[in-house]
Amino acid sequence: MANGLPNWENISEKLSSYVEDVRNEFEDMLGQIVEIPTVSMDPSYKGEIEKGADLAVEFLKKFGFDAKKCETPGNPVVLGSYITDSKNPTVAIYNHLDVQPAGGPEWVREPFKFTKENGKYYGRGTTDDKGPALTALFAARFAVENGIPINIKFIWEFEEENGSPNFEYFIKNNKSDLKVDSILVSDTLWISPEKPSIPYGLRGLQGARLVLDTGTKDVHSGTTGGVARNPIGELCQLVSQLYDAKTGKVKIPGFYKDVRKLSKEELKNFLASGFDVKRWIQVYGFKSVRTKNKAEILRRIWAEPTFEVHGIVGGYTGPGIKTIIPPRAEVKISMRLVPDQKPDKVFKLLKDYVKKLNPDVQVIRENALEPYYGEFTGPYAEAAVRAIQYGFGLKPAFIREGGSIGAVVTMKKHLKVPIVFIGLSLPEHGYHEPNENYDWRQASGGMKTFVRYFYEISQIK
């Protein structure tokens, strides 16, 4: 042991045995937490959220961490802490334990019943984000028990899938417990099983509902058609004026004005990332896409904003055709944002343009998240590269990611420390999709990766 740092060769030997020894324990704990349906966007699951948070506290305490459930105006946040020495650096590990809704005919297994098959773990939340959270916890226990000089805190959120509306409240009211030197986030995807990634950018989000009321009841299309306004038709026309559905190009004036230009170095990194267009199309089950040009695809999903239609509500949706004109219709949309776009400004641009195109349409604002842009150089980034190479024997790529994590923007704003992303999920794991899964390969390699990362950053001054 030199300068308080244990010999890595000794640690590595113990770590290999530890990972194999804890497999049954890991699988048992993952099964317990997956079978609690912690669906955050549906208020009827509030009791399950509380049950999940209580189990999370229990898990942390079982592993020797101090732990508590921090209340917010919405769902709680669970905070865990293990202080080896106040002089040692402190890392906070962020994950979320809430999940997307699940169910329907596409699920071949019960979504909230944990199923284990040939090293794969099935169930809602296995990869997003309960599996990676427990992977980090098992790594943290090993690190502190084997003398790595680092303090570790866990931040487990239960509202991430609902836009993190109360996460800032948690941060502001727990500042004294959140004095850390860096943050590790494990809630991102690899490019493929052969290509890990370290994202340094996330897209933001601005959601909205476009609502049009033109009457008070369904009316006969024969006796009123030709005179009665059709809100579904008008909203479809409006959407076509807001963006080109074939190309994805947004038509809202000023929408692209603040978009940060992608640098040549970033594009070079994207193209060298190992991204495979054919495989990507296959994994997501597309029959056709807007472009198959690799550079264009990477620009669009990692570095450019979007406009998407998520649902149209109104009229008759049963079998056959009911010849009525409905009195009301609604379109659910969102816009993914990139640096340096601001949700407030983008929403105003949308609202103003809709008012010009069809002043009778209400534009109702939904969740908003700012985009995130971090560093892809420096000691923490280098530590992450070495850690992943140790854990998986693979060199990671630095990329931006198309999704959004609201808590990351909040932590950057208030905690002001380096944030590093070491995700473990694969495209095949089915983020937000039916038949979500995780696997032992990612869990075991992830434990080794996180331990090595803790060892590396314990030496950063």
Write up this protein.
- The protein is α+β, with helices and mostly antiparallel strands and about 450 residues long.
- It has two domains: about 10-200 and about 370-455, Aminopeptidase, CATH 3.40.630; about 205-260 and about 305-370, Alpha-Beta Plaits (2-Layer Sandwich), CATH 3.30.70.
- About 35% of the residues lie in helices and about 20% in strands.
- The strands form five sheets. The protein has a six-stranded mixed beta sheet with strand order 1-2-6-3-7-17, covered by helices on one side.
- A hairpin with a 6-residue loop joins strand 1 (about 65-70) and strand 2 (about 75-80).
- Helix 1 packs antiparallel against helix 14, helix 4 packs across helix 14 and helix 5 (about 165-175) runs parallel beside helix 13 (about 405-415).
- The two termini are about 20 Å apart.
Keywords:
alpha+beta, Aminopeptidase, Alpha-Beta Plaits, 2 domains, 4-stranded antiparallel beta sheet, 18 strands, 36% helix
CATH architecture of the largest domain: 3-Layer(aba) Sandwich
Count of helical stretches:
14
Q: Which stretches are low in confidence, meaning pLDDT under 50 for 5 or more residues running?
A: none
CATH topology of the largest domain: Aminopeptidase
The overall strand count is: 18
Largest sheet: number of strands, sense, barrel closure: 6 strands, mixed
- The span between the termini is 18 Å
Strand content: 15-25%
CATH class of the largest domain: Alpha Beta
Radius of gyration: 24 Å
Helix percent band: 25-40%
Shape category: globular
Strand order of the largest sheet: 1-2-6-3-7-17
Oligomeric state of this protein = single chain
Number of domains: 2
**Structural class of the helices, strands and pairings?**
alpha+beta
Name of the CATH homologous superfamily of the largest domain: Zn peptidases
Q: Please tell me the overall pLDDT.
A: 96
